[in-house]
Glutathione S-transferase
Amino acid sequence: MRYELYYWTGIQGRGEFVRLALEDAGADYVDVAREAGDQAIMPFLQGSEPGARPFAPPFLKAGRAVIAQTAAILFYLGPRLNLVPKSETARLYAHQLQLTLSDFVVEIHDTHHPIASRLYYEDQRRAAKERATDFRQYRIPKYLGYFEDILEHSNGKHPLTRHSYIDLSLFQVMSGLNYAFPNTMRRLRRKLPHLNALTERVASRPRLAAYLASPRRIPFNEEGIFRHYPELDAAR
Amino acid sequence: MRYELYYWTGIQGRGEFVRLALEDAGADYVDVAREAGDQAIMPFLQGSEPGARPFAPPFLKAGRAVIAQTAAILFYLGPRLNLVPKSETARLYAHQLQLTLSDFVVEIHDTHHPIASRLYYEDQRRAAKERATDFRQYRIPKYLGYFEDILEHSNGKHPLTRHSYIDLSLFQVMSGLNYAFPNTMRRLRRKLPHLNALTERVASRPRLAAYLASPRRIPFNEEGIFRHYPELDAAR
């Protein structure tokens, strides 16, 4: 099966969670818009392609199936790429963790866009500073504390009984937060030993390391979810 | 199977999407916190109960399984309550639509809490006004336009081939928006004939009508997701 991933070019965005799974599994896939341009996405959003109509990218074409929503794509790919244990209980648990990460990703995005996604960051800077302050003080510790705890009460290495797409998604969120909020993350470092170890372990998985060093990995930048605006991070 | 639903008392919140499915199907369930108080929720959040540890309510206990995240609970319940067609394609499509509604619900909530969930509305009123203006002008039309279109290109009555939990969730979102943004929704009315018809149809399903008229249905109020703050709605 050759999978087709559809996601906007130029940013990692939500598409990156799917890319990491495909890359880690060595799956056969095409990153369609990066070959054919963003306009390849439009017919699906307009409903002129057969199959389920997505509200937004990322979506995945797998044969005739079209699957949208990051967490649903990973739920679908998990067993097919051997990136989740096979039981329904484990699959639902992984899905719940991924959906919690999705909620976190919305909050991370909204630190720089608390008023409207449509507007520039520069036009919502004051609200962004307020939201980011609360986010650094309460939300990062709450979410990362939850996942640190999950790791501490599992086998210490993986949230599930073995490597899964949740490890990859946690790697992505940790990497993004390290990029966007370096001072805040440095302060939290000692409280997150399992998450930090997981992040390093994932980065050194052979296929992932090769991907991260390749031009297929788009660098973090100030167009995506994880943006480094020093005024939104803590002082040193 | 007697299901146990865990959700904070006093608000409809995200728990309501699960309640509507259980009520519409005539399922055997207990709304645990409404019988035993909110403290019944805590041991699960603290990880001292066996099973998957939820990040937040709602979560469902089904035998020994604990399933968290509204959309995942509905994904699990759908086939068991005969509230979704049985094929994997249909189940994933329903799930994608529910996840899109979940994204919408976050945006609806954040109109009155654009800075921090932790703080009072009164302390983030200025940002709320800005966010709500953008929300009314761009986000309501975008989301509801998408679902109206889905209905227009399906059989006109249901987003899937037959009645499903997505009909119930759309009913809930439409009812909530009608409560919170009555002027805005009145203006949009002519553009949403299928959604309005669906909302009325769902409200008159016998089990749902009985539920909505019962004390089990908590009224909309200014503690929940859908809040009526006149200054956040459009002028008449």
Chain A touches chain B at residues 47, 52-55, 65, 67-69, 71-72, 75-76, 89, 92-93, 95-96, 99-100, 103, 106, 110, 114-116, 118-119, 124, 127, 130-131, 134-135, 138, 143, 146, 149-150, 153 (CB under 8 Å). Strands of chain A lie at 3-6, 29-31, 59-62, 65-68. The first strand of chain A starts at residue 3 and ends at 6.
